[in-house]
Amino acid sequence: MQNFLYRITNINVVGAFIVALMALLIGAAMPIYVGLMGSKVTNLLIPPILLLFVIFLAFDRKLIILAIILFRSVGDVLLNSTKTSIGGMSIGIGALINIVVLMIALLLVLEKPKLFPKKLALFWLPFMAIALFGVVQSPEKVDAIRTYLTLISYFAIFIIAVYLVRTPADFNKSIRLVVWSSVIPVIYGIVDAVLHMRGGSFRLQGTFSHPNIFAFYLVLVISLSLYLIKTKIAPLKNFGRFCVSFNMLVMLVQLLLTQTRSAWVACFLIFLFYAIIFERKYLIYLSLLPVVVLLIPSVRDRLANLDSSNEVYQYAELNSFSWRVSLWESALRWMEAAKYIAGYGLDAFPFHSRTFFLKAGAINWGAHNVYIQLIFETGLIGLLSFLALFVNVARHLRGLFKIEPLGFFILLSLISEYLVVSASDNTLAYLVFNWYFWFAIGAGCSLVSLQFKLTEESTGNTY
Question: What's the per-residue H, E or C state across the chain?
Answer without folding.
Answer: CHHHHHHHHCCCHHHHHHHHHHHHHHHHHHHHHHHHHCCCHHHHCHHHHHHHHHHHHHHCHHHHHHHHHHHHHHHHHHHHHHCEEECCEEECHHHHHHHHHHHHHHHHHHHCHHHCCHHHHHHHHHHHHHHHHHHHCCCCHHHHHHHHHHHHHHHHHHHHHHHHCCCHHHHHHHHHHHHHCCHHHHHHHHHHHHHHCCHHHCCCCCCCCCHHHHHHHHHHHHHHHHHHHHCCCCCCCHHHHHHHHHHHHHHHHHHHHHCCHHHHHHHHHHHHHHHHHCCCCHHHHHHHHHHHHCCCHHHHHHHHHHHCCCCCCCCCCCCCHHHHHHHHHHHHHHCCCCHHHHCCCCCHHHHHHHHHCCCCCCCCCCCCCHHHHHHHHHHHHHHHHHHHHHHHHHHHHCCHHHHCHHHHHHHHHHHHHHHHHCCCCCHHHCHHHHHHHHHHHHHHHHHHHHHHHHHHHHCCCCC
